[in-house]
Amino acid sequence: MATAETFNLGFIGAGKMAESIARGVSKSGLLPPSYISTAHRSQHRRDAFSSFGVKVFHHNIEVVEASDVIILSVKPQVVKEVLLELSPLLSEDKLLVSVAAGIKLKDLQEWAGHGRLIRVMPNTPSAVGEAASVMTLGEKASKEDEKRIGSLFGAIGKIWIANEKCFDAVTGLSGSGPAYIYIAIEAMADGGVAAGLPRDLAFNLASQTVLGAAAMAMKSGKHPAQLKDEVASPAGTTIAGVRELENGGFRAALINAVVAAANRSSTLS
């Protein structure tokens, strides 16, 4: 049984996001993997979770019965169906946390018949303890619930609180954003190879450069434009590269990507 310091955590949905969160929580030491459970029919997905000690049941009902906090991490298109099936089991002593993109608290509450809800938008760097997550509370979620989920997602990265009206934009930026950065890392590495670097060195340099630049942006207190200007000396190499990015519409492409993903999130509701 969970103690006052721990709790039983269940995942309804055993996809990549659930796996990332579960791995991150397990690695953080916040909860032992034996306090975490999920269910899936596919042996491949069952093996992915059991490989690091998570209990894997045969049915979602078993997960709900065994859990104090339930993270709903299924595809948005099946959230209603799943919640209607599980609603008889969702008593008020269970906290329901949804990470499904686009599905609003009012719909979650209606389908679950349950008001003790928190909505969170995390991202896949949860698996390595570097998530960017945002949460908003349902009407019956308590301060203790807020603290518990803040600690849970804070153990796998950083978490902020925002009004639910921001969530489509959050989804477009941080929820989908890792994919944009992976493309940038791949492209930078390809550029290094094109300029004569070995593939492994190019990949490692590109990845570490993105990591270091992000750390500078977070820790220096300086605006990104100022940090960029500090690298770009007059008639130097960096400004030549920046000019090519501007010619290629790099900045506009990223802005458009975030807006397109946010718009797609809004249609899911």
UniProtKB/TrEMBL annotation:
Keywords: Amino-acid biosynthesis, Cytoplasm, NADP, Oxidoreductase, Proline biosynthesis. SUPFAM superfamilies: 6-phosphogluconate dehydrogenase C-terminal domain-like, NAD(P)-binding Rossmann-fold domains. NADPH binds at residue 60. Residues 164-267 form the Pyrroline-5-carboxylate reductase dimerisation domain. Its EC number is 1.5.1.2. NADP(+) binds at residues 12-17. This is Pyrroline-5-carboxylate reductase.
